[in-house]
Amino acid sequence: MTPAAVLVPLVLHPEPTVLLTLRAADLKAHAGQVSFPGGRLEDGESPVAAALREAEEEIGLHAGLPEIVGELPPLLTGTGYLVTPVVALLRPPFSLNPHPGEVAETFEYPLSHVTDPAKPERRSREFRGETREFWVWPHERHYIWGATASVLVTLASVLRED
C-alpha cells in the first residue's frame, strides 16, 4: 500500500459546493478522470501536509487558505493506494491556477447533491475477469466514479450524521 492524501475542499458559497478537478487527458494514470487534488505522501509527511502541498501544486490553491476540519476514514483503492481524505473549508473569494500538465479544469459540485441519498448510483462492470461494484454521481458534463465517488459517499454519510 502506498499512503496518499486528497484535499476535499468545501467551498462556502451561500449554496456550498465541493471543489473537484478533471485530470489532464495525457497523464500516465487516471487521465481525464474526476478527482480531488492530492497524491502520495512524501517521507515523514502527514496526510494534511500532503493534501495541502498537492492542492498548491495541482490547482494553485495557497496552502494557507483551506481551513482543515478533519479527515475521513482512509480508502484503499484498487490500484494499491491508501488515501486519506482531508476535509477543509474554503471561503471565497480565492483564485486557482491549475497546472496544465496535471489538471484540465476545476469545477464545483453542489453539496446539496452530495447530501441527497438518492443521487449516487451503484454500478458494476467486469474488470480482469471479476465483477466490480462502484459508485457514480450524476453530473451534466463529467463521469464522477471510483475513489472520488467513494469519498463523496463517505462525506455524505458523515454530513448527514451531523
Kindly summarize this structure in a few lines.
The protein is an alpha+beta fold and 162 residues long. The protein contains three helices and eleven strands, in the order ββββαββββαβββα.
Output mean pLDDT: 90
Q: Percent range for helical residues?
A: 10-25%
Give the overall form.
globular
Could you give the order of the helices and strands?
EEEEHEEEEHEEEH
Distance from N terminus to C terminus (CA atoms, Å) equals 31 Å
Q: Please work out how many helical segments DSSP would assign.
A: 3
The main β sheet shows up as: 8 strands, mixed
Radius of gyration from CA coordinates = 15 Å
Q: Which structural class matches the secondary elements?
A: alpha+beta
Counted beta strands: 11
Low-confidence stretches: none
Say what oligomer this is: single chain
Strand content: 35-45%
